[in-house]
Design brief:
By secondary structure, the protein is of the alpha/beta class. The chain contains 11 helices and 10 strands.
Length: 329
């Protein structure tokens, strides 16, 4: 029987991308790499069998991966990566004006290039790099295509996927750059109430990460009480427009995009959502735990690839791409 397909996970965060692949039962998560300590602790708690490298990706090479895992060039079936999106997202008011500066000059943007370098080192059968739609700006897209072709992948696709179309109870539009066209099967949509309806009150022993999120400051309580579904308590300035936060969730719809800075108000109660509730909005199963301080946990949740979307991608890769390789053997 065919062994499970091997996955390397760069900019792994707390393991949302890996969770989706693991849930299929087809993949072994061999190694994760991230230098944010709470994310590393979270990843190891959820994937204890995986190697975890708590280091800056700039310091990692294919040789490093080989030394840790015993697997090197040509041994991985899939590389997944989620380099930081802040240099490219319109939600960042400090985003550089020149698109190419976002990729080549911004230190965080350069991490996308390090993901490409590592893909070149490992030469997986399939790679899928996740980021925001901002990388679709023509100069950035051309540069990414050129860099990936330089490391050995002539065919490059920019796959735009919407998480809510794949069973995630929140909206999220992301671009997945890959060497194959990715067209997962869509799944039934889920709403906020689908995600939150069977949870106990905050502070219950189970599920984990469902502690009380703290009280809303007294000066805001009256305003919060008056918020209707979809209304927000505050707005902040993004790169191009003002964006809402502290939104009263509409239970009948998918939630707005969950980000690390996102805080949501419960649809029926005058309180913030717990970390577990926000994780539910991202499609995390309750057995996926989050470690570190509470703000770090919110960050880990909001910066993840939603596991249902990752699972849909993983299923497509297995049935439409990797089984072809098996047939060729």
């Amino acid at each position: 029987m065919r062994e499970k397909y091997r996955v390397a996970d760069f900019f792994s965060g707390g393991g949302g991308y890996a969770r989706g692949f693991a849930e299929t039962g087809y993949y072994d998560i061999i190694v994760g790499v991230d230098n944010f300590p709470p994310a590393g602790k979270t990843y190891k708690a959820n994937f204890p069998e995986a190697f975890f490298i708590a280091d800056d990706v700039k310091e990692i090479t294919g040789r490093t991966i080989k030394d840790y895992t015993g697997y090197g060039r040509g041994d991985f079936d899939v590389v997944i990566a989620s380099p930081p999106c802040e240099p490219f997202t319109g939600a960042n008011p400090k985003r550089q004006k020149d698109p190419l500066d976002r990729l080549y000059t911004d230190p965080a943007g350069q991490l996308f290039l390090h993901a490409i370098r590592l893909i070149g080192d490992l030469q997986p059968k399939v790679f899928v790099i996740e980021n925001v739609p901002g990388i679709m700006e023509r100069p950035i897209q051309k540069a990414i295509r050129r860099e990936l072709q330089r490391v050995g992948y002539p065919d490059i696709y920019f796959n735009v996927l919407h998480a809510e179309e794949y069973g995630t109870p929140s909206k999220r539009t992301r671009v997945f750059v890959s060497n194959y066209r990715i067209k997962p099967s869509k799944k039934p949509r889920k709403t906020v109430i689908d995600a939150l309806s069977n949870l106990p009150s905050p502070g219950s022993p189970y599920p984990p990460n469902h502690d009380s999120p703290g009280n809303i400051p007294s000066r805001h309580r009256r305003r919060v009480h008056r918020l209707r579904w979809g209304d927000s308590l505050i707005t902040y300035q993004g790169a191009k427009r003002r964006l809402p936060n502290y939104i009263r969730l509409d239970p009948r719809r998918p939630a707005p995009t969950v980000m690390g800075t996102s805080r949501f108000i419960h649809p029926y109660e005058d309180r913030l959502l717990t970390v577990r509730e926000q994780a539910r909005l991202m499609g995390f199963p309750d057995y996926h735990v989050f470690l570190g301080g509470r703000d770090a946990q919110y960050d880990i949740v909001g910066e993840a690839v939603p596991p249902p979307l990752a699972q849909a991608i993983a299923e497509f890769i297995k049935t439409s791409i990797l089984e072809y390789y098996d047939g060729e053997r």
